[in-house]
Design a protein that fits this description.
Its EC number is 2.7.7.87. The relative contact order is 0.16. It is globular and about 55 Å long. The chain is built from nine helices and 14 strands. The chain folds into two domains: 202 residues, DHBP synthase; 75 residues, Threonylcarbamoyl-AMP synthase, C-terminal domain (Rossmann fold). It is α/β, with parallel strands linked by helices. Bound molecules: threonylcarbamoyladenylate and magnesium ion (MG). Magnesium ion binds next to loops.
Length: 316
């Protein structure tokens, strides 16, 4: 426990300085990114990284993403093939994570990579995240700021509801704009989509001039942490519903009659931004959740990935 509870810091220069100081002391700070709030700790400090796993209750075989301020900062830690250059030029700063072979003398704690010889790196676009990374001037390991397996946080209040008293501070800068975690592309071997996310696969394919394997229901787990049940509310979730049954609350998309609509005008980016907040608020009703069908193209692939995991049988 943190003696005086978790501090809430404003994302102003004083708050950023204080957050960076806490990271330097090996403490944990939740901070906004354009995707979701991250739970940050110094990626070179094994004790700090161990406390990230402890605060989330996360299995230690599930590696973390190192957040850095720039392409040059990423290149200090990982090898840099042409495909990394092309994708980083197109999407960084932004909601894309690249998994690349570690360089010698990288200095990253082996707890970040869960002992793998690759590292997931990302340059976030959110101004507060960028300010924090440049003030801290080092790699920040950050999973999403929620207890392992639960709904991801897109506000400081979501982060606090799961982690209050377990972390030193949360830097509050309002809701996240993208609302879904980053797309993860593996570039350690043949390019592969490891997790659909905030950059649509079609956009990645266009830059790489290829067709990466599309993530489909029932695929084998392809990123170590891609557990079948994840993003899970307390209540059961039923997909592809047309109407609510029994006590269900209906989460809709497009012009449908429902309790809560992700995007009445059928805009997938708007739906992505609203998804986790909608799940948090429906979860608070204590009622089972039904969701209408959402198209599988563009950001719909990542939205459906999260919903399938929210609906999957729970681990234990
Ligand atoms: O948008 C995001 O990516 C957010 C924000 C905070 O940046 N972070 C996030 O982290 O979603 P997390 O820990 O919830 O998900 C990271 C994913 C996990 O599925 C993990 O298994 C995968 O990245 N991962 C990390 N390192 C990896 C590696 N070396 N090889 C393959 N997958 C890796
Ligand atoms: Mg997560």
């Amino acid at each position: 426990m943190i003696p005086n509870g978790t501090l809430t810091l404003n994302a102003d220069p004083a708050g950023i300085t204080q957050a960076a100081d806490l990271l330097r002391q090996g403490l944990l700070v939740a901070f906004p990114t354009e995707t979701v709030y991250g739970l940050g700790g110094d990626a070179r400090n094994g004790e700090a990284v161990a406390s990230i796993y402890a605060a989330k209750g996360r299995p230690s075989f599930n590696p973390l993403i190192a957040h850095v301020a720039s392409i040059e900062a990423a290149q200090r830690f990982v090898t840099w093939p042409d495909q990394a250059e092309a994708l980083a030029a197109a999407f960084w700063p932004g909601p894309l994570t690249l998994v690349l072979p570690l360089r010698p003398d990288h200095g990253i704690s082996s707890l970040v990579t869960a002992g793998l010889n690759t590292l997931a790196v990302r340059v976030p676009a959110h101004p507060a995240a960028r300010a924090l990374l440049s003030e801290f001037d080092g790699p920040v390991a950050a999973p999403s700021a929620n207890p392992s397996g639960q709904i991801s946080p897109t506000t400081a209040a979501h982060a606090l509801s799961g982690l209050n008293g377990r972390i030193a501070a949360v830097l509050d800068d309002g809701p996240c704009g993208v609302g879904l975690e980053s797309t993860i592309v593996g570039l350690a071997g043949e390019p592969a989509l490891l997790r659909p996310g905030g950059v649509a696969l079609e956009q990645i394919d266009a830059v790489l001039d290829t067709q990466l394997h599309h993530h489909q229901p029932g695929d084998a787990l392809n990123a170590p942490g891609q557990l079948q049940s994840h993003y899970a509310p307390d209540a059961p979730v039923r997909l592809n519903a047309s109407t609510a049954q029994g006590d269900e609350v209906l989460l809709g998309f497009g012009p449908v009659d429902c309790d809560l609509n992700l995007s009445a005008k059928g805009d997938l980016a708007e739906a992505a931004a609203n998804l986790f907040a909608a799940l948090h608020s429906l979860n608070d009703t204590g009622r089972p959740i039904a969701v209408t069908q959402i198209p599988e193209h563009g950001l719909g692939a990542a939205i459906n990935d999260r919903l399938r995991r929210a609906a999957a049988p729970r681990n234990g």
